[in-house]
Known about the structure:
Blueprint: H1 7-20, H2 32-70, H3 76-85, H4 92-101, H5 103-114
Helix pairs in contact: 1-2, 2-4
Amino acid sequence: MPRSTNAVSSKRRRKKILKSAKGYFGSRSKVYTVAKNAVEKSLLYSFSGRKNKKRKFRSLWITRINSGVRKYGKSYSEFMKKLAESKININRKFLSDISMNNTDILKQIIDIIYF
């Protein structure tokens, strides 16, 4: 019985890996075995990267809120505590946008909370 190579499937499999390694540096995008390792590792990083992205954005929002609130002599933690006590439910993403683009609205929120 002649040997079966299954060339169509194996070529398709290799092509898929090399396509996803497109744009990688040097042999990482050309040589199949190297590209396979690079793609596997990148998939691992993409999972953890999605988690880190959420972390980074939350810290960015907190920093923006803090800088916006400090213009009025308040601290971030104090501001968030007063916000929770007055039962105003605004998320950090929205608050950071307000503190960056609409400082007059942030001033109104601070006036409502503290007075």
